[in-house]
Specification:
Layout: E1 20-27, H1 44-59, H2 63-68, E2 71-72, E3 75-82, E4 91-98, E5 105-114, E6 119-128, E7 130-131, H3 143-153
Antiparallel strand pairs: 1-4, 2-7, 3-6, 4-5, 5-6
């Protein structure tokens, strides 16, 4: 039997800048639960996406930034570990965390926690870059990502909350 992951999915690169992260706070809406009053499992990726989008906006990797740079960043891998359910009207937080990565890809880890701090779900995604004009996968790091990495090295993102 495979064990569910409770810690970090990706190893920290030696001498790399600290990961950047952002957290949002939410409440479970009626439209997100099943007949048992539990959040339907297919909603969790949407929660992760909300936190990921906000993290991207704050560090220069929004969908608009990708569009202007003629890039797309589809998800190549997605994994979720469910630990306990969320229920109707329950408050929770979602954290998106991006560890440093040297490749031409984006790694993101996620955690959903109840207000008491207990872990609800953890996940990760791996996104690759595609040139939107040629439809080719970017083997080299795109300029957009390199520009963000330069700012990251200067610690411009340490205050994301």
């Amino acid at each position: 039997m495979m064990r569910r992951k409770r810690g970090k999915y990706f190893d920290q690169v030696k001498f790399a800048p600290i990961p950047i992260s952002f957290m949002i706070k939410r409440r479970v809406n009626f439209s997100e639960v099943d007949i048992m009053g539990r959040v339907w499992y297919g909603r969790y990726p949407l929660y992760f996406e909300e936190a990921s989008q906000e993290l991207g906006r704050r560090c220069g990797l929004s969908f608009q930034d990708f569009y202007q740079a003629n890039l797309r960043a589809p998800i190549a891998q997605f994994h979720i570990d469910y630990h306990q359910p969320l229920r109707l009207d329950e408050e929770f937080t979602v954290r998106a965390l991006s560890p440093w990565c040297e490749g031409a890809k984006l790694l993101t880890e996620y955690e959903i926690r109840k207000i008491d701090g207990s872990l609800v779900a953890s996940a990760y995604t791996v996104q690759m870059f595609i040139d939107s004009r040629s439809e080719n996968v970017c083997i080299a790091t795109p300029k957009l990502l390199e520009d963000v990495r330069q700012r990251w090295r200067k610690r411009e993102f340490k205050c994301l909350k």
